Amino acid sequence: MKTTLAGRTALVTGASSGLGVAFARELARHGCALVLVARSEAPMQQLATELRTAGATVHVRPADLADPAARAMLAAGLAAEGIAVDVLVNNAGFGVFGAFADTDWTRLDAMLAVDVVALTHLTRLFVPGMRARGFGRVLQVASTGAFQPTPTYAAYAAAKSYVLEFSYALDAELRGSGVRCTVVSPGVTATQFLEVSGQRVTGYQRLTRMQAPDVARRGIDAMLAGRSGIVTGAFNALMAHSTRLMPRRVSARVAGWLMRN
Ligand SMILES: NC(=O)c1ccc[n+]([C@@H]2O[C@H](COP(=O)([O-])OP(=O)(O)OC[C@H]3O[C@@H](n4cnc5c(N)ncnc54)[C@H](OP(=O)(O)O)[C@@H]3O)[C@@H](O)[C@H]2O)c1
Q1: Does pTM top 0.70 for this prediction?
Q2: What structural domains does the chain harbor?
Q3: What's phi and psi for 103, nearest 5 deg?
Q4: Nearest ligand 1 atom, CA 39
């Protein structure tokens, strides 16, 4: 049976830009109240005004998710206000493009803190409450980069592999609890991602790029349909799953070639 979300509260991380904005709009369309989380407050306030005009209840909670104390304070603050999170969308994240040996450690460290540690910590903070209430949905944002080693995105792609494997395992653990975990793996999507990672768009990316609202809708639909995971877009799914048939060193070389700037 398809889940309905009307009246539920959804927390979306990375809600100041790109896919996070699209997830928030899609969840509001499904009747959710929203908690918007990212560092930049102004774009979230703007989104909140838009969603409130359409009838949604929206809370804006600026936070740097690389900071463990900020994550704990976010959860404690919501609990103190009596806001129970029914749907957690762990979307905040970024990549660091370039030869691994030349990339700046401070950026890599922050990337792992957000893409891996914050995602795991927020899941750990909110899933016990969902399980106790007998209902919850977690939507984790991985990437098609999760499916093969990716030179020039070596640590980012490996971080997204972690998200993919963690999410499938968690969903299996949670079976029968009323809580489910879905992992969505987008391919290249038109957002600030490439600008933030420091990569110029490649020909392959230009050809396969999808729009954020379409990707968000497919992710939410997969979550509502009770799927453990989805790769957005038929071509992206074909590319992601075909790597299973290749030796890793071959798929790494193909991925490196496709990402070349
Ligand atoms: N676009 C793609 O091609 C693509 C493909 C596959 C997967 N993804 C994944 O999709 C997710 C969303 O990225 P996007 O494409 O929408 O890129 P984006 O437009 O750059 O958005 C990234 C979001 O993450 C937030 N964020 C980054 N660091 C943060 C921190 N320390 N604390 C709190 N929030 C933080 C940013 O907000 P602030 O800067 O305001 O904090 C922003 O809202 C990421 O997990 C990304 O890896 C993207």
Answers
A1: yes
A2: 9-259 (3.40.50.720)
A3: -80, 150
A4: 41
45 exposure class (CB count in 10 Å sphere: 0-12, 13-18, 19+): middle
Centre of ligand 1 from the C-alpha of residue 132, in Å: 30
Pocket probe for ligand 1: among 193, 195, 232, 239, the residue whose CB has the most ligand atoms within 8 Å is: 193
Backbone dihedral angles phi then psi of residue 74, each to the nearest 5 degrees? -60, -50
Q: Which amino acid is at 104?
A: D
| Shortest-distance Cα residue to atom 3 of ligand 1 | 188
pLDDT in the model for residue 1: 63
Beta carbons of 236 and 186 less than 8 angstroms apart = yes
Residues with CB under 6 A from ligand 1: 13-14, 16-20, 38-40, 64-66, 91-95, 114, 141, 143, 186, 188-189, 191-193, 196
What would you report as the CA-atom Rg of the chain, rounded to the nearest whole angstrom?
18
> Chunked in runs of 10, what are the mean pLDDT values of the chain (261 residues)?
90 98 98 98 98 98 98 98 98 98 98 98 98 98 98 98 98 98 98 97 94 98 98 96 93 93 87
CA 224 to chain centre: 16
State the sign of the Cα–Cα–Cα–Cα dihedral 172, 111, 234, 15.
positive
Query: Within a 10 A sphere around the Cβ of 72, how many other Cβ atoms?
Result: 12
